[in-house]
Amino acid sequence: MALPLIVFVPGMKPKPEPDLHRDAVYRCLHEGLRRVDPEVAEDLAAHREGFRRAHWTWVFYQRYRDINIDLPGIEQLLQQPAPSPADRKQALALRTRLPRLLFLLGDTLPFLINSLAGDDMRVTLADVTRYVDNRDGIGDRVRADLLTVLGDAAAAHRPVLLIGHSLGSVISWDALWELSHVSASDVPVDLFMTLGSPLGNKVIQRGLRGRHAIGADRFPHNVRRWVNLVAYGELTALDRRMSNDFADMLTVGAADSIEDYDVFNHYRENGRLLVHSEYGYLVNRTTAGIIADWWRQHRPDLPARPIR
After folding, report:
1. What are phi and psi for residue 181, nearest 5 degrees?
2. Is the dihedral of CA 282, 286, 288, 294 positive or negative?
3. In this predicted model, what pLDDT tens digit does every residue of 205-237 receive, in sequence order?
4. How many domains does one find in the chain?
5. Domain that holds residue 98
6. C-alpha angle with apex 168: 187 to 272, nearest 5 degrees?
7. Is residue 29 situated within a structural domain?
8. CA–CA distance from 191 to each of 157, 174, 256, 262, 270 (Å)?
């Protein structure tokens, strides 16, 4: 059997240099796997070509983030096996829910967004608009690397788990739709995993590829299973449930299942809880458990998982 491939598509804002960022993301994923299924973690470590990171942030931003900003938080995350009571309390606190209610209002009534959004959110919205509008072909260029990675995987008959974090989930959706309806390429994705995804937001849905199509043509046709994970306290994933917004995918046979999970993300940067962090999502036990189960399906010779 061909080696399975996990493809990670990062979210918005500049990321560290590709090799540094890939290693940081991989460390978090590997630690999450080690906590739930050491045999899978060991197998992935022995086959590092089983993990790829799609490169798009440099194309979009033309600059890198200093990895040293992330390292202390990553180290703390890897040493802390679960969210603390303080992490949980903060994520569930009213002060993290109230802004979410305001942005939900803005998502329902888009003309209110500018008045509700702070400076950071306005920059984010501007970046999303730039991508969705494909200004100067930026959307096409952003998707190019992911399309190549998926095409190569299909040519090698490798099972694919596609993970899209934040805007990376939107880029992934658009790439999958393009493969289904533009290039008509047979690139199946065994498992599509979205982390902190804004795909449920009406503002985002109005810009998705396929939005003007009718019936089954609105959706990618190459996704077997879709798993969506959203951290408590999230502001990016305003609508936490994909299973209702995209239920028609099941009706028309564009996917076999859509599942939603709530999780805690306990990544901190300079003491500040960042529940949207890609690192915290990847080390999470729920995320890792789903990935480990998928990996085992395609690596049947692995030793049986110990009963714990």
Report:
1. -120, -15
2. negative
3. 989 999 999 999 999 999 999 999 999 988 888
4. 1
5. 5-297
6. 150
7. yes
8. 15, 16, 10, 18, 34
